[in-house]
Specification:
297 residues; mainly alpha
């Protein structure tokens, strides 16, 4: 059978023959199947389950608007590892929110398409109802959880902080934004995990929205070098500089006192050792018998 005959047969096949052609190796035959009136959504989804499907077939499917009316076909096409980049970028704009979420969490998705899908979700956040925001905060990727964190919604915030995909980088990015809600700073400062991160503590202290009580609570946990940088003119609000300088002076004084105490302890230990050595020498000179006192005599 010639190639032309095979393609013609693919366009007219039905039943078992049609299903067998779904696994044909020739791209031209597979593309011809797309013109078969019996080739429905179920068979197309079966075709898209083939991991060895040639890119040219996937690109042709991406051109067929009639097929792309099906959300299941869109998802299968997007999740295929060989789908051309431009087809994927175009289809991401047409996915429903929860399908976008599923796509961002799929393990085989390319980094570029995943990031683009995350951007699509973040762009929709202002229009989403509270329930969907809570779902995204709980299950979404780190970038989405970070964006929801930065919004500071009281019902969404605690859920986003517990998101397993949320990273320190996303938390720091949220704290670095202008006009961060004070609820965000307070929630991070009180959180059992994020409040223990040194970088988060430092970012909270640097944040202009941080209440002074929170800042003062974290100062004893910062290094002297960071405190000195923060205390430089223009880095922090002027009313906080005195607290920073006071903490630096307290640390320096405590360090000097500790050094003096260590020196005194070392001196005392040295003196004690000399006295013990002297006693041993006197005993040796007296044939091993220490000189008796008047009371002992």
């Amino acid at each position: 059978m010639t190639e032309f005959e095979r393609e013609a047969r693919a366009k007219a096949a039905t039943g078992d023959e049609l299903e067998a052609l779904i696994f044909h190796p020739a791209p031209a035959v597979l593309i011809a199947l797309l013109d078969n009136t019996s080739f429905d959504e179920k068979k197309l989804t079966l075709l898209l389950s083939r991991k060895d499907l040639p890119a040219e077939v996937l690109e042709e499917i991406g051109r067929r608007k009639a097929f792309l009316k099906s959300n299941a076909v869109k998802k299968s096409l997007l999740l295929h590892p060989r789908t051309p980049r431009l087809v994927g970028l175009r289809l991401l704009k047409e996915l429903y929110l929860m399908d976008l979420l599923q796509f961002t969490l799929a393990p085989a998705v390319s980094a570029e398409l995943k990031r683009y899908a995350e951007e699509q979700i973040i762009a929709r956040l202002p229009q989403l109802p509270l329930g969907q925001k809570i779902t995204l905060a709980r299950r979404g990727p780190g970038r989405v959880a970070g964006a929801l964190l930065a919004e500071g919604h009281r019902q969404v915030l605690p859920v986003a902080l517990e998101n397993p995909h949320l990273t320190e980088a996303q938390v720091l990015k949220g704290l670095a934004r202008e006009n961060v809600p004070v609820t965000v700073v307070q929630a991070l400062a009180a959180h059992r995990k994020w409040s223990q991160s040194y970088n988060v503590r430092l970012a909270i202290v640097r944040n202009g929205s941080a209440p002074i009580s929170v800042v003062l609570g974290f100062l004893p946990h910062l290094t002297v070098s960071d405190l000195r940088i923060l205390a430089e003119p223009g880095v922090m609000a002027e009313n906080l500089r005195k607290y920073l300088l006071a903490e630096v002076n307290r640390r320096m004084l405590a360090s000097k006192q500790q050094a003096a105490l260590a020196s005194q302890t070392q001196h005392n230990e040295g003196t004690g050792k000399k006295e013990d050595r002297g006693k041993r020498e006197r005993c040796a000179n007296g044939n091993g018998v220490p000189e008796k006192t008047d009371h002992q005599a």
